[in-house]
Amino acid sequence: MPELPEVETIRKQLSDYLPLTIQKVEKSDVVGSILKEESFKLKGKTIHSISRTGKMMDFYFGSDFHMLSHLGMSGSWRISPTKVKEKHTHFQLTCLNRDKEKIFLAYVDPRRFGNIYINTKEETKKHYKKLGIDIASEEFNADYIWECIKKFPNKEIKPFLLEQKYFAGVGNYIASEICARAGIKPTKKNKSLRKKDAHSLLEGTKSILEDTISNNGTTFSGGYSDANGEKGEGVKNLVVFYQTICGLCKKTPVIKITQATRGTYYCPSCQK
Ligand SMILES: [Zn+2]
Known about the structure:
This protein has 2 domains: 4-128, N-terminal domain of MutM-like DNA repair proteins, CATH 3.20.190; 133-266, Helicase, Ruva Protein, domain 3. Helices cover 24% and strands 26% of the residues. The chain has helices at residues 4-15, 121-128, 142-151, 157-161, 172-182, 195-213; strands at 20-27, 35-38, 46-47, 49-53, 56-60, 65-70, 76-80, 89-96, 102-108, 115-120, 133-134, 167-168, 255-259, 262-266. The longest helix is centred in the last third of the chain and has 19 residues, at 195-213. The radius of gyration is 20 Å and the shape is globular. Residues 246, 248-249, 252, 267, 269-270 line the site of zinc ion (ZN).
């Protein structure tokens, strides 16, 4: 499932091709489960920039127009000088770049849990309201983490990190990795954490984001691929998630448990 590093990789790759002016829009027969809102026509509009908050991408068309994209379980964008003919392509934009060359921008999603919203600025705001501070931004600091932790004393830290309303961009593998790198057992209740733990969680976040974004994201068992259709290499830097031996102490077998229906991995020696 694409998390912040995967979305950021795709965002950067697509951004290299901007600006792109849309000439033609093609949709698959089943695009209705993905394309949820369409309040204006894309034809003739120019994509000037793509920003990201958490796992949400925001294609900006100038003045009042935005296209938001959530990749869901298996979504990705492709960019190509030739038409994208990959299976599960649900949405394809034929564009012209600055040199009037054709570029194809396509949304591919085998499982179709992703969403696209084509909206005015005003309607776009309601999607931003659902998101907390982006974990890769400068505003994400130890004071912010500590405030969030204090608000919910009875929640367990690892499932709490998955709440996008507070930690925009954290997904399941990132949450396990943050706890491991912070040296915190994922089942710990927020009320048993101290201010220094907020600092450790911040450092853990920076560490896993660096390790994965620099490798163009992380691909598990054939899942995510980037805007060029390539797999991410970030998995080689994971210390607990999908690992048998802890990558920190390099000797303790990793334990897998289930928390709030999601798999959690941790090292019983490194995480207390
Ligand atoms: Zn360990």
